[in-house]
Amino acid sequence: MKLFDPLGPGSTTVSYAGLLEKIEIVRSTLRWAPKLERAEIEKLLNQANTLRDEVMQLSRKERFIEAAALEPQAPDAADLTAGQRRQALIDRSFVFEGTFGDNPKLLAALEVAEKAAPTDLPVLIDGESGTGKELMAKVIHANGSRADKPYISVNCGAIPDNLLESELFGHRKGAFTGASSDRKGKFESAHTGTIFLDEIGELPLTGQVKLLRVLEAHEIQRVGSDETIAVDTRIVAATNRNLRQMSEQGHFREDLFYRLSVIHVSLPALRERRDEIPLLFSYFGDEAAEALRRRPVKMTPKLREFLLSYGYPGNIRELRNLIYRLSCLAGDVADVDHLPEDIRPQRDMPTLVEAFGAQSTAGLSAVPNSLAEAKRAASDEAERAFLERGLQETGGTVAELARRCDMNRSHLQMLLKKHGIHSKDFRRRAQDGALREKS
Ligand SMILES: Nc1ncnc2c1ncn2[C@@H]1O[C@H](COP(=O)(O)OP(=O)(O)OP(=O)(O)O)[C@@H](O)[C@H]1O
Ligand SMILES: [Mg+2]
């Protein structure tokens, strides 16, 4: 290790270790100096000690600067492509029991959740029904320091007003008719862990006041008891309502809203992240196949086209249920007839793609609602064609295709999954072709 030399090359550089050694020599000579008074020796020794401490501090500082220079700088999310951001989340082992693609809104939500998870800050998750709010709450718990502590979920919309307080904070025996024994509330059960307050927007105003008290004082009182009990509980709340608007209209306490939403995560509706739909088909198709002990269901182009352009008011939950239904009702291949009647397109009505005489392709959305959507569908289609041609040329070898187009192999695998392309089909075709040539 060398001292920083402001005079530039050519001047003598001195090592910290060398300096410290010299100081040690001065100190030991001083200690036994015959011609000096004791007081003088003490004074000089003190000066030598100060000098030694200063050199050691400089040495530590330099080591710190060197280490910082070696450490790779985390790139700014804004400088990365969506694919790189997704891969970065996976590489950082951010635990997420689900699937996600390149949608910037979802990636942003996951990145915020990842940063919030290790802290104890309250998190408010909002999004339409079925967008994955509960899943996100579990992800935040699982990635935090309380992961091995309790995770207690409470549906605030499902508790009758008169039982709310007892449900959340517990009660003492005899506190009200029916309270036949002492009972712990959800907050106490979640002590040291996380409490997930689902449908927080349904919490009546009286409940909101009590919740605010817990957030401020970190203590609760069981119904019918004067005793205060300290609780250390991380709060994650979810809602499909607009709490800010509700608080402006006086339906939700503004102070509670601000306390709950220190970190605010918004999950986009599925129709805003259509690019993720093929990925979810394949994810839930495999999941349903495993649950139903069958092979993953295939789809006719007409069904696939319908499902790619459907609005999914129930978001991911609706898509998941549809795939389970198709996997249960269909044989090898599912068609539009297997859809629930209320969403099934009429039998003899051609899809728009058919009506316009375009070729019916699996990745093309039937009714692009906007130019952006049409562009995305076209880009999906190009991606699919590229992958298929690549696999054809490499005889179905994913590693070779990854090498040829300089892509990360796991990213390539994910794209194949997204499009429901199986490399083994291409390998089989290549083998069949080779056999035919031989015979
Ligand atoms: N990104 C995802 N990948 C895989 N599965 C997902 C994803 N997001 C949500 N899901 C699944 O969708 C279903 C609905 O998710 P969840 O219950 O978390 O939604 P929610 O927003 O809490 O809905 P609600 O408001 O109706 O309670 C669950 O089965 C969940 O596992
Ligand atoms: Mg939920």
Automatic annotation (TrEMBL):
InterPro entries named in the record: AAA+_ATPase, AAA_lid_NorR, Homeodomain-like_sf, P-loop_NTPase, Sigma_54_int, Sigma_54_int_dom_ATP-bd_1, Sigma_54_int_dom_ATP-bd_2, Sigma_54_int_dom_CS
Keywords: ATP-binding, DNA-binding, Nucleotide-binding, Transcription, Transcription regulation
Domain Sigma-54 factor interaction, chain residue ranges per copy: 99-328
SMART domains in the cross-refs: AAA
Gene Ontology molecular function terms on file: ATP binding; DNA binding
PANTHER family named among the record's database cross-references: TRANSCRIPTIONAL REGULATORY PROTEIN
Identification of the protein by name: Transcriptional regulator
Annotated organism of origin: Trinickia soli
